[in-house]
Amino acid sequence: MDENEISEIIVDQAFKIHTKLGPGLLESVYEMILAKELEKCSLEVECQKAIPIKYDGLEFDQGFRADIIVNNKVIIELKSVEKSKPVHYKQLLTYLKLTHCKLGMLINFGELFIKTGIRRIVNKLPSN
């Protein structure tokens, strides 16, 4: 399964969760539920995975943690805020570059409409 196929499942599940729960709960609630829903879709899910910085043979553990990594290909960064900020995009792009993953999904469950709360961020993902 490629990144785009995985992202379709992620969007579908995020929409389902947002429809049932609505906006404004804590990020950790959405994370637990989304992880379980993705596992039900037969996807490999890792929550709160540490992301080290590797440079010139050195490795630094600076406490970066991806909210969810799916099939070792797509990183999901979850938020539950009124509006996403540029720093949220930069955070996810940092994770993509450090892991060499090609696709990230920034999902803000705090938005009134989930379609305005989902943003794809790519890191050298080939276009179809």
| CATH architecture grouping | 3-Layer(aba) Sandwich
Distance between the first and last residues' Cα: 14 Å
Q: Estimate what percentage of residues fall within beta strands.
A: 25-35%
Provide a count of the helices.
Answer: 3
Low-confidence spans: none
Helix content: 25-40%
- Widest sheet: strand order? 1-4-5-6-7
Principal-axis shape: globular
**Series of secondary-structure elements, N-terminal to C-terminal:** HHEEEEEHEE
The Cα radius of gyration reads: 14 Å
- Total beta strand runs: 7
Average pLDDT score: 94
Alpha-beta content class: alpha+beta
What is the count of distinct domains?
1
Query: What is the CATH topology classification name?
Result: Trna Endonuclease, Chain: A, domain 1
CATH class type: Alpha Beta
Secondary structure layout plus pairing:
Layout: H1 3-21, H2 27-40, E1 45-50, E2 53-55, E3 58-60, E4 65-70, E5 74-79, H3 86-99, E6 103-108, E7 118-122
Parallel strand pairs: 5-6
Antiparallel strand pairs: 1-4, 2-3, 4-5, 6-7
Helix pairs in contact: 1-2
The gist of it:
The protein is α+β, with helices and mostly antiparallel strands and 128 residues long.
Structure, described:
The structure is a single chain. The chain is α+β, with helices and mostly antiparallel strands. The chain has one domain: Trna Endonuclease, Chain: A, domain 1. The protein is built from three helices and seven strands. The protein has helices at 3-21, 27-40, 86-99, and strands spanning 45-50, 53-55, 58-60, 65-70, 74-79, 103-108, 118-122. The chain has a five-stranded mixed sheet with strand order 1-4-5-6-7, with helices on both faces. Strands 2-3 form a two-stranded antiparallel ribbon. Helix 1 (3-21) packs across helix 2. The longest helix has 19 residues, at 3-21. The radius of gyration is 14 Å and the shape is globular.
